[in-house]
Amino acid sequence: MTDEPRPQGMPPAGPPPQWTGQPQPWPVQPNAQQYPGYSPYPPALPAPANGVWLGVLSLVLGVLGCVVPLLPIDLSGVRAYLALPFGLAGLACGLVGVIGRHTGKPVSGVGIGVSAIALVLGVIMLGNQVAG
Question: What's the whole-model pTM score?
Answer without folding.
Answer: 0.62
